[in-house]
Amino acid sequence: MGKVADNKAWFLVLPAVLMLTIVGVIPLITVFNSSFFDIFTEQSRFWVGTEWYIEILRSSRFAASFGRSLLFSAIILMIEIPLGIAIALALPKKGIAVPISLVVVSLPLLVPWNIIPIIWTGFLHTESGFLGQFLAGLGVDFNWKFNPVHTWSALILMDVWHWTSLVVLLCYSSLTTITGPYYQAAAIDGASRWQVFRYIELPKLNRVLMMAFLLRFMDSFMIYTEAFRFNAGGPHNATMFLAVDLGEDIAAFNYGPAAARSVIYFVLILTVTWAFNTALTQKSQKFTPVSG
Description:
Layout: H1 14-34, E1 37-39, E2 45-47, H2 51-58, H3 60-90, H4 97-106, H5 116-124, H6 130-137, H7 148-175, H8 180-188, H9 193-221, H10 225-231, H11 242-251, H12 255-286
Antiparallel strand pairs: 1-2
Helix pairs in contact: 1-12, 3-7, 3-9, 5-10, 7-9, 7-10, 9-12, 11-12
């Protein structure tokens, strides 16, 4: 007698679907609709079609913001992914040191985004901040308010401090699933530390690294709170990233262009997410055994 299909369990996810529709789908539709209008007030709006999209995509302002965001994300990924793997490999695997080290590593993730720039401006203050005083003692005039290179360096340091912990925790959770016999076999074969990492640990990290790449790209690509509160897009628009640029339109009550920018940014993030998901699926299928 065959099994009877019972799909009643799907009713359990209906509340989540309803909530997602309310907080995600409906606002997205509203923003998409607003992007085709020139909006003065809620009652006074005029149809402009794709005018805002054409204007934004052709503007040097958008190209510059897009380039800054891509560069920032690339730098963040190149630093945080290798650093996160290295820290995860260095963490203890057993004993009382495990929970202690994991708690310490996780602490930066508990700090709210809007507090991060406040903390780091305090760190970098030349008179009261320990980091600012340390740099001044070395003879370094770290002027993050007016020097674009220094501002970028501070933002990168801030992001690395805040988010590398996420990569560490993801990698560590995957490394702990590797059983002892793998390492014992590698030791018997005389494998070097690099060979153990390359042929045993790295394949196990593939899926979590894809997840870490995706999460960190999305967050860093749409950085707003840290950059805006740190130096408001300055100096000289050096940190005017996509999200900060969008915030400028909203602050100026340019709701039509702001809505169009939001849709463009959403499509960019969606495209990258799709690319990562496709790569992850193909990699998973490649290593899935075929039953005979």
